[in-house]
Specification:
Number of helices: 9
Distance between the termini: 30 Å
Helix content: 55-70%
Number of strands: 7
Order of helices and strands: HHHHHEEEEEEEHHHH
Radius of gyration: 25 Å
Keywords: Membrane, Transmembrane, Transmembrane helix
Amino acid sequence: MLLMVACYATLIVGVLPLPPDADVRDLRLALISCTFLCVLMWITASVRSPRTDAVVLDKARQRERRPSRTLPILLGLAIPLASGAALVQAVGPDGEQGRWVSEVYAAGGGAYEIPIEKVLDEPDPTGVNINDVDEYAADVMVTLPFDDGARTVTVHGATTVGKPVKGDTVAVMYAPGRPTLGVRHNDNGFFSSGLALIWIWALTFFLCIFTAGVFAMSRRDRIHSVRRFRTDVHGPAALVLCMGVLFLLPGAFFHTSTWAGWLLALVAASTPWLALTWVVQRRWRTLTRT
């Protein structure tokens, strides 16, 4: 149960579009480490427990030992969630922009809505239409409150719904305590990456329904038979899953380019299914031999 709780906490935090700051990264790594510790505890308990259960004659105790109905469903949900969490790590700023955003968050900054003081050039339509209103981009002048006093700065390429005028607000990112980081228009909101997130969440949702249904209709005793750790079954599967986590580390620490981040995320997203395939294949060999 403890392993399942740690696993689901890690997956839920992973599938949410949290800010790309160091605190969120450390939280995810802490949850992964906690899950890894629970896996080690599970392996230790499996190795130390007897290999075969004694015959139970008491019918009441036999009913208590019946396979759980919820475990197959929980396992069926965990696999798509793991893939979805891996894909979500590729969504958001990357490369030089990702490094800058991380520095802003690390310096105590973030995203703010600031009123426009002056529009510096002719707004250009971006081609995006929101609720039948065109989006425009323009260089604007805003006044930002820094720790050492207010400063008037220019924000390049700020986008607004409708032509920007004085008094409209624009989303900017900066760190009040570190003016040297500069100021940029905040284009890392939900709508800038919302399409990718919607596709990932939708795919994860339907795969969760499918795999949970398949696992629920499977024989519960067969699923419960793989609960005990076996080196030839769970060892390679655990190694594959660990490789999936390692594929996500470059994007978390070094802010890889967009194509590299998505490639690594796709490879990491495939590892839960590869691990499942290995376990099923090894279990099928054991059943056919017996």
